[in-house]
Structures are given as structure tokens and as C-alpha cells.
Amino acid sequence: MNIEIVAPQVKTAARSIGTAADAVAGLDLEGPMGKVASALPGSTVVGAANGLKAEWKSDKDKWVKDARDHKQATIAAADAIVEADTITAQAAKNQRETMGYY
Questions:
Q1: Residue 30 vs residues 24, 37, 44, 59, 95: alpha-carbon distances, Å
Q2: Complete DSSP assignment for 16-39
């Protein structure tokens, strides 16, 4: 079975993941929840709003980290595949030369 990748396209897709992570990292998801809590002082909703604010921040930060890690892993995998193909092609060429096929 053969699998063919186009490394530059894979890397472009990986960089897009990184761009999305950077955009999400800049979002202020928790800010609006802080306004809910301050708008209703003394209310029982304050605790829920603050809890949701913390959860949103934690989830967002984890997603951003995971996306950035995925970007790096994808680029590294594309590089490794290209390197392995290069080594294999050189080894095959060396073998053909040794056997007198070149």
C-alpha cells in the first residue's frame, strides 16, 4: 500500500491550525461572564457565573495548547516522512549502483 502526501500542503494545513489557535487564544470568553457576576451582586448566580468563567478559560486554554501541539506534531510528521522517503530513495539508488543497474 502506498500513501502519498504533499508535504508543503500538510504544513500549510498545520500552520492554519496554528493561526486558529492564535485567534482563539485572543478571545475573551470569560469577560462577559464576569459582567454577569458584577451585574447581580449577592445573587446565587454569581457563583455559577464565576464557575463558568473559570471553566471557559480553562477549556479555551487547553484547546489552544492542544491545537498548537497538533500543529507542531503535524509539521514534524511531514518532515519525518520526507526525510524517510529521501533516505529510502538514496538507499535504493546506492543499491542499484552497487548492483550495476545504473
A1: 12, 11, 18, 11, 61
A2: HHHHHHHHHHT--SHHHHHHHHHH
- Residues 10-19 have pLDDT tens digits of 999 999 999 9
CA distance 64 to 24: 7
Are 46 and 37 in contact by the 8 Å Cβ rule? The answer is yes
Query: What is the distance between the alpha carbons of residues 62 and 53, in angstroms, rounded to a whole number?
Result: 14
pTM greater than 0.90 (yes/no): no
Which cell numbers in the block locate residue 71? 500543529
Question: Strand, coil or helix: what is 11?
Answer: helix
25 Cβ contact partners less than 8 Å away, ≥ 6 residues apart: 60, 61, 64
Dihedral class, residue 34 (left if φ above 0, else alpha if ψ from -120 to 50, else beta):
alpha
pLDDT in tens, 30-68: 888 878 878 888 888 888 888 888 999 999 999 999 999
